[in-house]
Amino acid sequence: MDSIDVLRWLERNGIPEHPSTLAIALKNLGNSLATLDRYQAAAAAFADGITTYRELARTGSAEYTFELALTLVTYSRSVSELPEGDPVAPVTEAIDLYRGLIRVEPRGYLPRLAVALEWLSILCQRAGRTDEAVTAMAEVVDLQRRLAKDHPRHYLVDLAEALGRMSIRVGEMGHPRRSIKPAEQSVKIYRRLVNQDRVSHLPGLAAAVHRLALRRTDIEYFRVAEAEAKEAVALYRELVRLDTAGHIGDLGRTSMTLAEAAGHLAHAEIQHAALVEAAGAFRWIASTETNTPSTSLSPCGTGPGGSGTWTATARPVRARPVRARPRCAPSWPGSPTGPAADGNGVPRARRRSPASVDTAAGSRLAAGRLCCGRSTVVNLWESECLARLSDSCLSQPHWSRA
């Protein structure tokens, strides 16, 4: 007989105080099972805990009502991972309970209400109910503004993140122009936070600037989007120097955004360099995931230092990514080392390189192999980079040794 069976026996026999202990044990069991991805069993444990908390909450205790609301939200998260079940109903009930508690003590329960509303927004977005998702997210932003006004030190970051997610929801709703304002507000807050503590808030600023560049691209403000994407790439390069494994994927995705904006503006060199950097970043990640060495690209027959080709340099074989601060320049393939000039700083002649056709064919072949090979998100990103790189090599003039 395990501890929960003992607690159930005590509950049936009317032993005082043990119903609350049983509810806590069931909630903890559900959390443990959810951590192990056993969502069916977790949902069953949460459901039993909810039944017990309902009985306890009938006494009018704010403590038990709060615990009931918490358990309803966690139950909703487990149900959302199952093929059947309605995760919206329990979180909606939890929101109603939080609203009742806020009437008595607003300061203590506002953060929890914001969390529940944001989860409701996510569920509505998944179900295609975008209007409800945006409405719930707008309330989250209002709550975070209220919290940040009273306690800026603790809740200003939450407000910036909520504004960023609001921008995403509005954009997915089909209103890209309306998504700009919350994205701009998020960037503004993060700039303020970075001035106070650069190390802690630089990742948030980089993500917010990249998000804003994406929103500008959606409304075809490509010149502004290119400038913002350049800033985001610069910020992520700084972060990669501090934590390569933690941010190199973000650098790759941001470089692809820069390449897209530059492509619309016919800025061929910027587009090509961004695609090279993105492909190199994702190749670095793939090499660490598969525990196999990776070699650098050969972008149109030119390389750093004017060597004419990229030297095939094997990446270190690692069982898992490690956090490290490089002592010198970034070492991922395609990192910015000035492909427009040779080792002496002399600009190369701008002309079509015959090697570009070979690189394009090789990029297309590599992309096809990746699509047919390991089915990971990283490889899909890398294959997209290589495919775009091949198009760039074939359709645009590139820097090459004179």
Q: Which helices and strands occur, and which strands form pairs?
A:
Layout: H1 3-12, H2 18-35, H3 39-57, H4 62-79, H5 88-104, H6 106-126, H7 130-150, H8 152-172, H9 180-196, H10 198-218, H11 222-242, H12 244-264, H13 268-290, H14 354-372, H15 377-395
Shape: elongated
N-to-C series of helices and strands: HHHHHHHHHHHHHHH
- Please give the number of β-strands: 0
Oligomer: single chain
Number of helices: 15
Class by helix and strand content?
A: mainly alpha
| Average of per-residue pLDDT values | 76
Question: Which range does the strand content fall in?
Answer: under 5%
Uncertain runs with pLDDT below 50, 5 residues or more? 292-331, 337-376, 396-402
State the helical fraction.
over 70%
Please give the alpha-carbon distance between the first and last residues: 81 Å
Main sheet record: none
CA radius of gyration is 26 Å
Describe the protein in words.
This protein is mainly alpha-helical. The protein is built from 15 helices and no strands. It has helices at residues 3-12, 18-35, 39-57, 62-79, 88-104, 106-126, 130-150, 152-172, 180-196, 198-218, 222-242, 244-264, 268-290, 354-372, 377-395. Mean pLDDT is 76; it is low at 292-331, 337-376 and 396-402.
